[in-house]
Amino acid sequence: MDHFVINGGNRLSGRLTIKGSKNATLPLMAAALLTDRPMVLTDVPDLADTRNMVGLLSELGCRIEFTPASSFNAAGGTMLLHAHDQSQSHARYEIVRTMRASICVLGPMLAKRGFARVSMPGGCAIGDRPVDLHLRGLEALGADVQLHQGDIIVRVPGGTNGRLKGARIFLGGPMGSTVLGTANVMSAATLAEGQSIIESAACEPEVVDLAKMLNAMGARIRGAGSPRIIVDGVESLGGTEHRVIPDRIEAGTYMCAAAMTNGDITLENCPSDALMAASDAFERIGLIFSPEQSVVGGVAAQSSTSRDPMRATVRVTCSRVLRPVEITTQPHPGFPTDIQAQIMALLCLADGNSIITERIYPERFLHVAELSRMGAKIVRQGSTAVVTGVRKLVGAQVMASDLRASACLVLAGLAAEGTTTINRVYHLDRGYESMEDRLRMLGASIERVCEKNPTNAHEVAAV
Ligand code: EPU
After folding, report:
1. CA gap 253, 181 in Å, rounded
2. What is the mean pLDDT of the chain?
3. Total H helices, total E strands in the chain
4. pLDDT for residue 159
5. Which of the listed residues 3, 26, 172, 284 has the most CB atoms within 10 Å of its CB?
6. Strands (E), 47-185
7. Is the CB of 76 under 6 A from ligand 1?
8. Could you tell me if the CB of 335 is within 6 A of ligand 1?
9. pLDDT (tens digit per residue) in 48-81
10. Which of 249, 274, 279, 246 is nearest to 332 (CA)?
């Protein structure tokens, strides 16, 4: 297993292009199963997760060609997907256990092929992660749902000739809505007979991006981005070309990196509009965001790239003293759970006590013990952590436990005094493309040390 060695203390500066979003890309790729026409995705990040999805979709009859980006500072590569063979509809445990997001093939396969068998994803380092809402949603659309030997088996009555039936579906759960559950049910409803109304739908930007692409393929979806999504079913969908939205979590992570190193980073392709809650917290802490201006004919104007609030150009700097804050993770548009670990690293250096409450995954705190090894002062009680700022973090050997916890440790290492070694960085490779190259480009001292005998690292249960 590879590890990172970071010599902390360097100030980061420079320009960085945010990659296409991992969590948008995975359901977009799965949507290729809804059509027998080819489709093209651009700005696709080159990640262990997207490669796992390529493996899964290939087994399910998709031909896929992926051309990664030519540079690690580009937004992503181009992927051609074509579901030409409908005969295989079994997502096997061997793949699903490497990537929980494999569940998002369930709805598209069911709707298009009338049958799907997907191994039930287990829990993972951040919690139990049930899929009951996905199944309830598909059942409401008329699917027959069974569990057999650890697999979910769903069928449309009438088989390949049958169709799902539009229905009113409630997707609210104890922690709010479900993002991939909404993606699954919305995708399936596009090919159902009649109208479906999804209540308590997830409002995440990744759901909006999926709806946008499905509509370009011929679907009739309204309301994505709000808690009520209305889908008028159509008989078939065509192909399309779609540009993936930028990754709001990657952007938030590099914003923390700028602040923790007293840096000055300009983010291009930055989805500012999708980061309102995080930006609000960052500003309260002391980060300064300046949308980039360009000078046109002597008059200051927003540069063409910064006009789209989902693809802005933003300079991130920071005041010298970081202020403590209180944050609670929530479904979008609330503060995202996927930035909780990273902001905790940042708050370790704030001047006072911060309170972080995790409302999506109450157990998502594996990074606390590792940060403590670096001198952080954090007390956790249940789903709340109290972070008392310290003057400095100190380099140490630490263990990455899941994707965002790993990012948090990298951030801590960048700011720490001395050397930090982060083991098990395969977690990072699932969600951050070329992180060490990108950080080095900004001035960090960070190296990947490749182990000679790679283990079955990618097979370890994934988030
Ligand atoms: N939940 C249920 N029942 C369900 C589904 C979810 O009770 O059937 C609960 C979950 O246990 C959790 C909450 O609802 O407490 C939200 O889970 P959700 O289903 O929204 O999560 P997800 O769709 O499986 C996606 C992202 C996660 C991100 C969450 C929340 C992808 C591939 N994954 O997961 O991303 O944390 O939404 O925003 O899109 C990550 O990138 O690090 C990551 C974990």
Report:
1. 25
2. 94
3. 14, 26
4. 74
5. 26
6. 62-67, 77-83, 90-91, 115-119, 144-148, 151-155, 168-170
7. no
8. no
9. 999 999 999 999 999 999 999 999 999 999 999 9
10. 274
Residue of 131, 135, 180, 245 to mutate, ligand 1, most atoms within 8 A of C-beta: 180
**CA–CA distance, 308 with 314 (Å, rounded to integer):** 12
| Residue owning the nearest CA to atom 2 of ligand 1 | 130
Residue type (1 letter), 62? C
Q: How far apart are the first and last CA of the chain?
A: 18
How far is 53 from 86, CA to CA, in rounded Å?
A: 17
Q: Tell me the C-alpha distance between 26 and 360, whole Å.
A: 20
175 lines ligand 1 (CB under 6 A): yes
Band (pLDDT 50/70/90 cuts) for residue 162 is confident
Of 104, 124, 203, 256, which residue is the catalytic one?
124
Report pLDDT digits (tens) over 276-309.
999 999 999 999 999 986 544 445 444 444 479 9
- For the Cβ of 251 lying below 6 angstroms from any atom of ligand 1, the answer is no
Tell me whether residue 124 is one of the annotated catalytic residues. Answer: yes
Helix (H/G/I), strand (E/B), else coil: 46: coil
Report residue 102 as tokens.
Answer: 């494999």
Q: How many whole angstroms from 174 Cα to the centroid of ligand 1? A: 12
Query: What are the pLDDT digits (tens) for 396-416?
Result: 999 989 999 999 999 999 999
Maximum average pLDDT range among 159-168, 288-297, 450-459: 159-168
Q: Is 8 helix (H, G, I), strand (E, B) or coil?
A: coil
Q: For residues 301 and 221, what is the distance between their CA atoms, to the nearest angstrom?
A: 35
**Is the pTM above the cut of 0.90?**
yes
